[in-house]
Amino acid sequence: MNHHDYHHLNHVKEQLTSKRTLWITLALTLFFTIVEIVGGLLSNSLALLSDSAHMISDVIALGLSMAAIYMATREPNQRYTFGYLRFEIIASFLNGLALIVIAIGIVIEGIKRMIHPQDVDLQLMLIIATIGLVVNIVLTLVLSHSMKEEENLNVKSALWHFIGDLLSSVGVILSAILIHFTGLYIFDPLISMVIGAIICTGGAKIIRESLLVLMEAVPDKYDLEQIRAEMNQVEGVEDVHELHLWAVSTDHYSLTAHVFIREDIQPFCVILAINHMLKANYGIEHTTIQIEHPAMHDHGEYGKQFLQHIESASVKSV
């Protein structure tokens, strides 16, 4: 075994449920996208065409998600020591960006249609939208079930796509009904713009979550100061600094810290105790704990202040 190939924790994700879910979703989405594009062109409905444009983004998004899941199964190597887990986040960011671009395009086209209204084939529009509603309800339920079994930001972004699709289908149906009873074709672009705003909201949410991971921010589920306090309570620990906690990918966290310890205690015992606490209390298994003492490791003014504090405490105890 080569030493550089060994990892005590595998930086890979075998997500069988997510793979199966995304394959089913991709096949159904691709089929209905073709149906909706044809229906939108024949009926001349902007609401239907905006929904089909969103469906095209779904196909691209699902393709990226599938690529990310397969990349995540590849083993780490000398260049990519964390494996390819981060590709999942990059794919999610691109998915969120695609949602916002599509939403902007829908709003722009909606404004044009409001200025220059166009007739639509209400019957065909209603039939296609009803089929779409059924398909999107099924896909949303499938993805929601998958999210309960495995946490995956790509599946979550795909779920947001289909929640947008579900609302789009409802909007198209509502648009057709309002046009039928009022004769005002302005409802078609108006509702398409509302759909665009909903899609944009979902995209912004996915982009925010992706950026937090890419910027190596502390995950929302953790309180860094609470973790620091619990590390300080481990026997022999005098001070915790240079504490960093970030997500490599969804449900895959890393923590590093420098720890001052008493000179009379075994360093390995401290490391074992800290790692046990982090795993038991927070589920954090990938850690790097560096044991230090300011008398041996230069920490500048911070180290001097710490030594003065220790000396003062020793004098008081005497």
Automatic annotation (TrEMBL):
The chain crosses the membrane at residues 21-42, 54-72, 84-108, 124-146, 158-179, 185-207. Its main location: membrane. Keywords: Ion transport, Membrane, Transmembrane, Transmembrane helix, Transport. Residues 22-215 form the Cation efflux protein transmembrane domain. InterPro entries: Cation_efflux, Cation_efflux_CTD, Cation_efflux_CTD_sf, Cation_efflux_TM, Cation_efflux_TMD_sf, CDF/SLC30A. Pfam families: Cation_efflux, ZT_dimer. GO terms for cellular component: plasma membrane. It is a multi-pass membrane protein. GO terms for molecular function: zinc ion transmembrane transporter activity. Residues 219-293 form the Cation efflux protein cytoplasmic domain. It comes from the Bacteria. It is found in: Membrane. Belongs to the cation diffusion facilitator (CDF) transporter (TC 2.A.4) family. SLC30A subfamily. This is Cation diffusion facilitator family transporter. It comes from Paenibacillus alvei (Bacillus alvei).
